[in-house]
Amino acid sequence: MKRVLPVFLAVGAACPWLYLRLVGFHGSPAVQAALSGAAILGAAFLLSWAAELAQLDISDALAVALLSFIAVLPEYAVDIYFAWQAGKDPTYAPYAVANMTGANRLLIGVGWSAVVLVYWWKTRSRVLRLAKRDRLELGALTLATVYAVVIPLKGSLSLLDTAVLLLLFALYIRSASAQSVGEPELIGPAAAIAALPQTPRRLVTASLFVFAAGTILLSAEAFSEGLVGTGKLFGIDEFFLVQWLAPLASESPEFIIAVLFALQGRANLGLRTMISSKVNQWTLLVGMLPLAFAVSSGSPEAMPLDSRQVSEVFLTMAQSLFAVVVLARFEFSVWSALALFGLFATQFALPALHPPFIALYFVLAFALLLRDRGRLHTLGRAVQNLTARERPVEEPTVGPQER
To answer: Would residue 396 count as lying in a domain?
Structure first.
């Protein structure tokens, strides 16, 4: 009972807003944002546990991809809502880009770094080594990052971006589904539910999915509008609230799960989940924005980006490039984690200095490539494996581990 208590707490967090939503509650933007945000937070935890349970029935790599996708589903709901509204009211367009860029930069700057730092605190190992099977995520992230350069250069998000990014996501899922099924390592509520017989377990898993998805659908609009309204009401930059507060609320369960994996000595799984989440957001999420905009507006025209949005996308792409190059050795050191977190924290505190940070990310990435040409070869192999028709043979991780 103790292990499933968090499930009831998560459901309880969603219930107040669900009730008020069904009775037609109309309160202040701050109250609306708080209650609907709590509902989304509870739903995000439920989705994470349900996705973990799904690992019992599908391949290991596909399960990680599914877990990463479902864990950030609340983020998708909020961002696509803004893109949909932008098709009718152009003033919403900046919010869609703000939410997307904030979520992507939080994943790397905070999520990835936290897993490695917690792993170091727990084991005193200065380097977390990844398995060569993680080349799948690395290949997808590399292609998506290289393509992302096009978006700020043309100053818009178009249906061409949708086609390319959704194709990359499809390649990633196809490759992930071809890998073998492994025995998952479950923790907390997921482990307790997994102990049930197969049929009850699947019913509970399906119920978690349905309840959480319904909660998100009933909360996304209120949370999004509540954030914008709160910013206007209290004189806070709405762009700032949408960019950082919304992703922090929707992605916190995923961060917590990854940190728990690291505390239990399974930091590799936690980091792999974080990397897969970045792939999901950098392909599927970004690709869905212009599609939602086009359908809502009734026109195939691209969603335009102003100078601030172009800068945000460029900075997000530059951070992703540096992170990809760091991972090209299939290891993530404490120093790399501190560098990613430090750069993120500094550019967060000094948003007016985006251009120097963009340049710095590029300089660091190319400096690493020049210092170690093997990184470029590894990235090329990762891309090749992603697009291969047959599943590549997994290679063992090599090299001594630093301590």
So the answer is: no
